[in-house]
Specification:
heterodimer; A: mainly beta; Sulfite Oxidase, Chain A, domain 2; Immunoglobulin-like; 5-stranded mixed sheet; 5-stranded antiparallel sheet; 6 helices; about 25% strand; B: Cytochrome Bc1 Complex, Chain D, domain 2; 2 domains; two-stranded antiparallel sheet; 8 helices; about 30% helix; extended
Chain lengths: ~450, ~240
């Protein structure tokens, strides 16, 4: 299966690149850069007014002023402006063997809120997107239960509903950056993540209906696509296949889980599991099985293909780590970002998104001086559990080089790590769950680059 | 099934719902938070385990639920050559970016990981696979990639047998027979390497001022990866 071959480094790439001196640049911090750090708090910077030109040509009406536009329902399902044609999902050709078992990326550089429009939600297929007939589709709930049951999609829609806004993130988000800087684009460094309002039936509602045995400590979902993907999800009292307890940190997320039929108010898209999918907020997206046809309650993990071969982390001590389920606190500055160039000196707003699979975001701090000094950003309401939180901070760009970055702290007190800290415990090969602080470098030319700080 | 047929189940389900209500306190999950939630009744149908069986093709790591039937290395070789080798390589070496069956020997894999030079492309059944029954599960459910789930049980057992033989899994000789009894006994070479995550492993602090001294060591994009296409993102002026 091609699938899961998310290669962190393209074929032929210099895998030892991190050690080659030609890639490295010592940036001697100049006095100007230090001053740039101070400018974040200074709103009286003089350069915003510098160099503004004066428009002297009399204004003319635009063509749209003298014509009639399109009538209602000329576009029965509305589409973005033709001028926004560049705002699309993209993929990276070398990452996977084909597009049927692959991933695409959400263009966060072009988005302004915490909700991902449905057509821009990242895609992850293991055997391609399929069109499942909702009239014929069935969900079976069985295993260690008093009464196995089968449900139609209409049955699920009739039940008490649950609606919540949550992010959904592939644990491979950022995977290509483990060994070194690779993608000069926000879309490709952080686009394996989207955030939606999800609606469905809470898993606990279904559990109550079938009467789950108290001895059941795991369950798994299975899809009806070609991959029939299945993942083991722990509940209270779960032990791994060696008899070791699963940490309590991971045994309560299932309480928020739901069988979803809607995202952002409309039916799920085929790309995202139409007509129903499992969704476990806070967990790596792979456990949230699309095209869900079966939930089975059991008392041990399956240790599926996904859990033994693929969604594992090879650690620097040679061990292979399983069940790293939560997407821990993460954040990224979405503006400025490498996908755009700075447009002259003056006022900007640093904007970004932060999220944690453990709960709410508590703080986001921003540094524009390489991480020496930090200023707390303003969080934009709503601030929700296991959901993107938007943050902002005014920024006066004086035209100097700046190393800008954001650092999230969640309500558990967990602080987003630096890349150095992450590499110390995970090495360079663990591929998944790279949630380290992302650094962008603003060049004097206004170019914005993806860079990594190796020593701090 | 039609909706009118489903309504015939309503009475039976109402009785089932009462029975469930009585046993709430015994549930593994805490229902106290949901006390105000209405009990759901009259929705869905009961189903028998026999009716579910054709869908229940999940084979646990320890062999639980492995099906009757068997397969051989020699039968598996024929199927592999015809249906698998074009993607996974004649010798399990992988092809066209699809996974290899045969990776570095497990001790070499471990050494590479410790040296920081392991790569996904090194990984195979002999160094990155915990349990043989999982292989049967994967092959029976999702292979071959272009026609998933089309192998018979015996064919899936045979391919399982052949690829383990190809990867020199100890105990899987040319005459090995794969079935629900033999597969759980196979010791996969990497099995002892698997550990369960124990929780957050970094402990950054929320430093605000003068967080480090000296010069940061900034790494930019490697020239050697400079020709990698990252799609069609066009540089635009910031909005």
């Amino acid at each position: 299966m091609s699938e899961n071959m998310i290669n962190p480094v393209p074929e032929g790439a210099n895998k030892a690149g991190v050690a080659s001196s030609d890639r490295r640049k010592f940036l001697r911090k100049s006095v100007a850069l230090a001053a740039g750090g101070a400018a974040i708090a200074a709103t009286t910077s003089a350069n915003a007014a510098d160099g503004l030109k004066t428009w002297t040509t009399p204004l003319k009406n635009e063509p749209t002023r003298h014509m009639l536009g399109r009538g209602v329902v000329s576009v029965p399902y509305g589409l973005p402006s033709k001028y926004e044609a560049g705002v699309v999902r993209r993929n990276v050709g070398w990452l996977t063997a084909d597009t049927i078992a692959s991933i695409s990326f959400t263009p966060w550089q072009d988005l302004h809120g915490i909700i991902t429009p449905n057509g821009l939600h990242f895609e992850r297929y293991h055997a391609g997107a399929v069109d499942v007939d909702p009239e014929k589709h069935r969900l079976v709930v069985h295993g260690m239960v008093k009464q196995p049951m089968i449900f139609t999609v209409d049955d699920l829609k009739r039940m008490p509903s649950h609606t919540a806004i949550h992010f959904l993130e592939c644990p491979a988000n950022g995977a290509m950056e483990w060994r070194g800087v690779q993608m000069d684009s926000l879309q490709f460094t952080h686009g394996m993540m989207s955030c939606s309002e999800w609606t469905g039936v809470k898993l606990t509602t279904l559990m109550e209906m079938v009467g789950v045995d108290p001895k059941s400590t795991w369950f798994y979902g299975e899809g009806t696509d070609g991959s029939a993907l299945q993942r083991s999800i722990p509940m209270e009292g779960a032990h791994d296949q060696h008899g070791k307890p699963i940490p309590a940190l991971y045994t309560s997320h299932y309480r928020d889980a739901m069988v979803c039929y809607a995202m952002n108010g409309e039916a799920l898209r085929p790309e995202n599991g139409y007509p129903i999918r499992l969704f476990v907020p806070g967990f790596e997206a792979n456990v949230s099985t699309k095209y869900l046809r079966r939930l089975m309650f059991v008392d041990k993990p399956l240790v599926t293909y996904q859990e033994t071969k693929h969604y594992i982390e090879v650690l620097p001590n040679g061990l292979i780590r399983q069940y790293d389920l939560v997407n821990e606190a993460n954040s990224v500055i979405t503006s400025p970002c490498p996908d755009f160039k700075m447009n002259g000196k003056g006022t900007y707003e640093i904007r970004g998104i932060a999220w944690s699979g453990y709960g709410k975001i508590k703080h986001v701090d921003i540094s524009v001086d390489g991480g020496k000094n930090w200023t707390e950003a303003t969080l934009t309401e709503p601030v929700l559990s296991k959901c993107l939180t938007k943050f902002t901070l005014p920024f006066q760009w004086d035209g100097s080089e700046n190393l800008i970055m954001s650092r999230a702290t969640d309500e558990t007190g967990y602080v987003q790590p630096t890349l150095k800290q992450l590499r110390e415990v995970r090495g360079f090969n663990s591929i998944y769950h790279k949630n380290s602080i992302q650094v962008w470098k603003i060049e004097k030319t206004g170019e914005v680059k993806n860079v990594q700080i190796e020593n701090v | 099934m039609s909706k009118s047929k489903m309504s015939n189940w309503g009475l039976g389900l109402a009785a089932a719902a009462v029975a469930l209500t009585l046993s709430n306190s015994a549930f593994a999950f805490d229902t106290s938070a949901d006390k105000s939630a209405p009990k759901v009744s009259g929705i869905g149908m009961n189903i028998t385990d026999a009716a579910i069986k054709p869908w229940n093709i999940s084979y646990f790591y320890d062999g639980t639920n492995l099906p009757d039937g068997s397969g051989t290395v020699s039968a598996g070789e024929k199927i592999y050559s015809a249906q698998c080798a074009m993607c996974h390589g004649d010798f399990g070496e992988g092809a066209h970016g699809y996974p290899k069956m045969v990776g570095d020997p497990v001790d070499q894999f471990e050494a590479s990981a410790k040296a920081g030079v392991d790569a996904v492309s090194n990984r195979g059944l002999n160094n990155n696979w915990g349990n043989a029954p999982t292989l049967m599960d994967m092959i029976h459910r999702a292979m071959p990639f272009y026609a998933p789930g089309t192998l018979t049980t015996d064919e899936a057992y045979s391919v399982t047998c052949y690829v383990m033989n190809l990867a020199s899994i100890p105990g899987v000789g040319d005459d090995f027979v794969c079935d629900k009894t033999s597969l759980p006994k196979i010791k996969m070479p990497a099995e002892p390497l698997y550990v369960t995550n124990s929780g957050p492993d970094t402990d950054n602090t929320r430093c605000m001022k003068d967080c480090y001294k000296g010069t940061e060591f900034v790494v930019e994009k490697a020239a050697s990866i400079g020709d990698v296409s990252v799609g069609k993102v066009q540089k635009k002026d910031s909005q």
